[in-house]
Amino acid sequence: MSEEMQKCPSCESPYGYQSGDNQYTCPDCSFEWNLADIANAEQLVALDANGARLQNGDSVVVVKDLPVKGAPKPVIKAGTKVKNIRLNDSDHNIDCKIDGFGAMGLKSQFVKKA
Question: Is the pLDDT of residue 1 over 50?
């Protein structure tokens, strides 16, 4: 294992340490990342409802009620905070976990950076 440290993509701490093959962990915020995933995510650009650029690990707030088909609750209420998002290259360009709903995809146009 290498002793090389990497900058944390979530909190920007310079003390990210290697915890597996291309796997790193931040001692300050406990964020875990893979170097290959970070390289791919840096190419993705997602803007929130206000035009602010979103990044992996950001927290966002839903800006309007969003209907969810087949979920225990019929809508995600405006003002719901979502932590530790992941960007992807699809129509719903944010992957996240929401309390009471589980894992799901959101469109960046319906959230604002927290």
Answer: no
